[in-house]
Amino acid sequence: MVQYRRPDTLSEALSVLERAGDNGRVLVGGTDLLIGVRRRPLSPLVLVDVKGATDLPPAIEVHDDGVRVGPTATMSALVATDEVQRWFPALVAAANVVGSVAIRNRATLVGNICNASPACDTAPALLVHDATVTIRSTAGERQVSIDEFFLGPGQTACGPAELVTAIDLPRPPAGHRSAFQRLTRRRGVDLATVSAAAGLTADGLATIALGAVAPTPVKAVAPGPIDATDPAAVRELAEQLTEIATPISDVRASEEYRRAMTTVLTERAITAAADAATPGA
Amino acid sequence: MNDHLSQLEPIDVTLQVNGTPVDVSVPAHRTLLDALRDDAGFKGSKKCCADGECGACSVFLDGTLVNSCLVLAVETEGSDVTTIEGLSVDGLSDLQQEFLKAGAVQCGVCIPGQVVAAEDLLRTNPHATATEIRDAMSGNLCRCAGYERIVAAIQAAAETRVTIS
Q1: Looking at CA atoms only, how far is residue A193 from chain B in angstroms?
Q2: Which domain range does residue B36 map to?
């Protein structure tokens, strides 16, 4: 029998999660979680709705050095924030294609990464933006780099008795640009067949991150700067960096097709980043 | 804290539906959609995929467009819900009339959700272009594939609203 708890404070929420152990599930947007609950209404899950905790960090906090995204920040709220639009274009592009309008009004950025789908839309962008994840339990608080957050499909560094309380996005250095590309079978509401985010520093050093081509989102950094306006150089770099991809065949695409499209999307993401207006100002 | 030790017992929830207070008593896993339809008697919102893919259950929750199949009834304590019934208290709304005029209603099952989602779009983007309408409505499926007429109906309603205002 599914149980529902709505703690008034963060510390109560952490105690409830600790007592619930492996059966505990944090509920915020519910757009992934409740699909599973519907299929198993008799499972012994304890849904911990943290939206009632009055001492949670604010949904979105903007400061001079970046943006702090709390557990209640929805995709819609995220993309409507000026500084997020200016500083993190890859993330905005990714958050804008998660589900539909109604889904984005409920789905949260924190929930999206905690669900840890290999095809998670926002993960490649967060990898390129060097996000840090703050994880809290009754024992205290720790921070892990987004690079170390994803452990496998549905598996993250956030344990059953823990709660992700923030995702910190550091403000990019002057001249840094980013972009996101996604391939789906149809244009609206679909899961990614392949996705790629790219970041490019003012002196041409590229970082790329890929979704849906490995058990977790993966990231690679270029060995040195390139001229991103030179298509041949971009192509060569994309081929080199996408060697980290280990795609599988599934209902959405074959391994071979994914591998080919990974390079194409990476090229496009680097080129789009190079063509983008310089944010950070 | 709302700590229900034995949740074999239903949970009492009070919410506002279309401006009227509604009390329901539901198990923890009951969705807002099921509570609206089966406990509160608002049958306008439809249950099709129940997975947040089709939009037939679209409602406003505290003014925000949501899929009511992906919200638990217990999450809505004290909330304000507007369903398709709440958009047509004084007869058919302008959007509903344009849907009929455009021949956008075929089997009709998706239409309550289509109209609620279209209402949300026109409130947030009164000058929506055809492309913006298609993007915004991509979470509302029509298995009769009446999309062309649905887009035409929303455009017609948008034009009339902009002219009037």
Answers
A1: 17
A2: 11-87
Q: Between chain A and chain B, how many beta carbons pairs sit less than 8 Å apart? A: 101
Q: How many domains does chain A have?
A: 3
Residue A43's pLDDT is: 87
Chain A residues with CB under 8 Å of B3 CB are 5, 16
Examine the domain organization and report whether A156 and A187 are in the same domain: no
Establish if B6 belongs to a structural domain.
Answer: no
Residue A91's contacts (CB-CB under 8 Å, 6 or more residues apart) are A78, A84, A122, A125, A126, A129, A169, A178, A180
Report pTM: 0.95
Nearest-angstrom CA–CA distance, B123 and B87: 13
Nearest to A98, CA basis, from A72, A124, A129, A61? A124
Mutate which: B6, B7, B75, vs A, most A CBs within 10 A: B75
Whether residue B112 contacts residue A162, with contact meaning beta carbons closer than 8 Å, is answered with: no
My answer on whether A67 and A157 are in the same domain is yes
Contact between A46 and A23 under an 8 Å Cβ cutoff? The reply is: yes
Kindly state the average pLDDT of the residues B31-44.
98
Q: Each residue of B120-158: pLDDT tens digit?
A: 999 999 999 999 999 999 999 999 989 999 999 999 999
Q: Which residues of chain A have pLDDT under 70?
A: 278-281
Inter-chain residue contact A103 with B70, CB threshold 8 Å: yes
For the segment B5-26, what is each residue's pLDDT rounded down to a tens digit?
445 689 999 999 999 999 999 9
In a domain, A281, yes or no: no
- Cross-chain Cβ contact B28/A47 below 8 Å: yes
Which of A137, A170, A203 is the endpoint of a domain?
Answer: A170
Quick one: average pLDDT of B108-126? 97
> Chain B residue with minimal CA distance to A51?
B75
Q: Is B67 on the interface with A (CB under 8 A)?
A: yes
